[in-house]
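Structure tokens please, single chain.
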Amino acid sequence: MTFSTMLATMGEGMLRTCLIFFLTLLFSLPLGMVVMFLRRSRFTLVREITKIYIAIMRGTPLMLQLLMWYFGPYYLFGMSIRGYRFPAIIIGFAVNYSAYFAEIYRGGIESIPRGQYEAAEILGYSKAQTFFKIILPQVIKVILPSVTNEIITLVKDTSLAFTLAYNEMFSLAKQIAASQTSFTPFIIAGVFYFVANYAVAFVMERIEKALDYYH
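Here you go.
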């Protein structure tokens, strides 16, 4: 296999990796917000169930969770899993990362002084207006470094899709390396992950600077 053919083959895998990355962010960021609200619920039962959910998601390997999402419907309900591989990957990633984002959101919200809620109430703001107009903009600024770390981790974690024999970039790198007895595919994969993470860090740094109102 020539280098150009190898690069083209892995390029297709890179597109699949990017698809996993973007779809995971698309679903996990808003889902994390929902989980965060449930975690802060005034109802003890809802709060405790959500805490257990977060503990399970953060306390068990993502690889194991992917296997459970994919094979679980078949073993538990006898359902066909034909064509279910990619949806299982996205569900597994999104549900896992929502737990991490939920805790990041919660930490950001709890860092806002209580006095700001009281001041908003005095000014006649509703709870929804207080959250979206006053609290959320500050929370976004506070949590950006932590969110950046999670997104960088996600770029690397996409390689775990190989667990379900999905031909993303890392899986193809392993296959080509084994068939060609060459280390080059791993170097190409390493360059891709580095460039992708550098791009994420660059974009997030620009966003942080844009939100740095006092400089």
